[in-house]
Amino acid sequence: MKSEEIKNLIVRSFSEKKNSHAFLFFTNNIARCVQDVTEIIRQVNCLKDGSVDCDCNICNTIRQETNPDVISLSPDGKEIKTNQVLEIIHRFSSKPLISKYSSYLIIGADKMNDGASNKMLKFLEEPEGNIVGFYITDRVSGILPTIKSRCELYTFNYGIDSIYDLLNITEEDYQSFYSETINLVSKLNNTPKFLLMADSKKIAQKERVEIEKILNLIKRMYIIKYESITLEKYVDHEDIQEVLEVIMTKDIKIIVKRINLLDNIINEFKTNVNKELFINKLFLSWE
Ligand SMILES: [Zn+2]
Question: How far is the CA of 60 from the centre of ligand 1 (A)?
Answer without folding.
Answer: 7
